[in-house]
Amino acid sequence: MSKYDVAVIGSGPGGYVAAIRCAQLGMKTAIIEKYNTLGGTCLNVGCIPSKALLDSSHHYEDALKHFEDHGIEIPGDIKLNFKKMIERKASVVEQNTKGIEYLMDKNSIDVLQGVGTFNDKNTVVISSEGKDDQTIEAKHIIIATGSKPATLPFIKIDKERIITSTEALSLKEIPRHMVVIGGGVIGLELGQVYRRLGAEVSVVEYMDRIIPTMDAAQSKELTKVMKKQGVKFYVSHKVSKVARKGDEVTITATDKKDKEVTLSGDYCLVAVGRRPFTDGLKVENAGVKLNERGQVAVNEHMQTNVQNIYAIGDVVRGAMLAHKAEEEGVFVAETIAGQKPHIDYNLIPGVVYTWPEVASVGKTEEQLKEEDIAYKTGQFSMRALGRSRASGDIDGFVKILADKKTDEVLGVHIVGARAADLIAEAVTAMEFRASAEDIARMSHAHPTYAEAIKEAALAATDDRALHS
Ligand code: FAD
Ligand code: NAD
């Protein structure tokens, strides 16, 4: 039987990063993955393919709607080759998953293909069709088995017309009308992809606003922009029935006043969140406990109730984000090596890769109110920037929330071009506990979108933005 210092179950961003850090720290490491490709949800059916389609569909929309503004004329009709777009996405995924194989090899990590099942707290059986079961022994085991799309009890996902994000990333045709259940990250990113490609898109959201966990100002701005792009929103609508007849799917929902609303489309994308995935793992054989939400229960060291078994990423509490899983992967590896790592969960940014992008870090205005923290606000519109006018990306804003007394930055919320990259400045500033004035006094290159951060900081400091 092969013996390891660490066995990692699951090769998503949590698992593969944990494995690399364990190997860097001198531990003999194995990674177990049930699929033939490494990289988990993120690389195969999540972050990477969705961003590939967002980028491709953005180019298409630019060619259709914006090239002319720039004086670019294309003779003849602009044609969409959707099959090629999907093929390109597949090749982007392949390049990335191959990259993980390379990293495993480079770090001398054994990749064991098959479903990992606990035998006891130190042994895992790996089973793969057509191969003999393999049993390995490990001093430490890291559960990084991720998540799967969730659904509603009355919805049967048929993977043809009633689909999850996984199928939506590999459709064979552009939907005529895609009804999206859930105005969260997946619903809006993939809804925007298909809207750009010509589909009618309707988003049905249970809460009174889309992206309900982000700052309300961001929900409002994104709603405004996406409505202009032609997406229809049904907020405060509770879906009660989804029925398919032939190629038609009918979605029934009730609004705030209990009025029934019916929407019919050829595709229904169910995007109501994801559930932790522990199927087939048999955690009970190792004595590992799950919590009431089906997540692997962990303490502040990401340790389960069984001392040598840890869990990270989507399968444990907290935001289901690739970079959160990665931080936890490093955290656990360093904990096993006897170090004392730290993660500040308040400073894990959240991004929605629509265009304009939406990015956040720290507390939202709603949270500050709820926690009764006195704050001040500085906001600056993207449209006032020379850079935004040059590119034509004038939607959005930067909003900085700072402590009323100390001026410490407590939250930064951005809607705008390249917000996903801009948020890194806010994370850095907040990691160093910067005040709004600290940011306001730093030179920001001109002309850049980042100048909006400086201007919002100036606005928060003493209402002294220079360009508004
Ligand atoms: P996963 O990536 O889910 O990996 C778990 C792995 O474990 C899988 O490969 C699975 O096959 C394997 N596994 C499970 N059980 C076993 C077993 N018993 N034996 C062997 N292997 C097993 N996050 C972002 O931060 N940014 C984004 O832009 C983003 N976009 C997304 C877009 C979509 C459409 C989706 C669905 C998700 C997106 N996410 C994004 C979320 C992100 O993908 C997850 O947060 C991230 O993948 C979680 O990483 P993980 O390592 O915890 O689990
Ligand atoms: P989500 O939690 O972001 O959004 C789900 C939405 O569905 C919420 O707004 C919720 O109020 C709504 N909802 C729930 N039940 C409903 C019902 N019965 N009727 C109507 N609406 C209902 O989840 P998601 O969009 O499915 O994404 C899953 C996970 O994947 C998220 O945790 C997210 O962090 C991650 N993800 C991240 C990114 C990114 O970082 N850019 C992209 C995609 C996915």
How would you portray this structure in words?
The protein contains 13 helices and 22 strands. The chain is α/β, with parallel strands linked by helices. It has three domains: 2-149 and 275-343, 3-Layer(bba) Sandwich (FAD/NAD(P)-binding domain), CATH 3.50.50.60; 162-272, FAD/NAD(P)-binding domain; 347-460, 2-Layer Sandwich (Enolase-like, domain 1), CATH 3.30.390.30. The protein is globular and about 65 Å long. The termini are far apart. The structure holds flavin-adenine dinucleotide and nicotinamide-adenine-dinucleotide. The site of nicotinamide-adenine-dinucleotide has 26 residues, from helix 6, strand 12 and strand 18.
Please identify the structural class as seen in this structure: alpha/beta
Uncertain regions spanning at least 5 consecutive residues: none
Q: List ligands, each type once.
A: flavin-adenine dinucleotide, nicotinamide-adenine-dinucleotide
The number of domains:
3
CATH superfamily of the largest domain: FAD/NAD(P)-binding domain
Number of H- or I-type helical stretches:
13
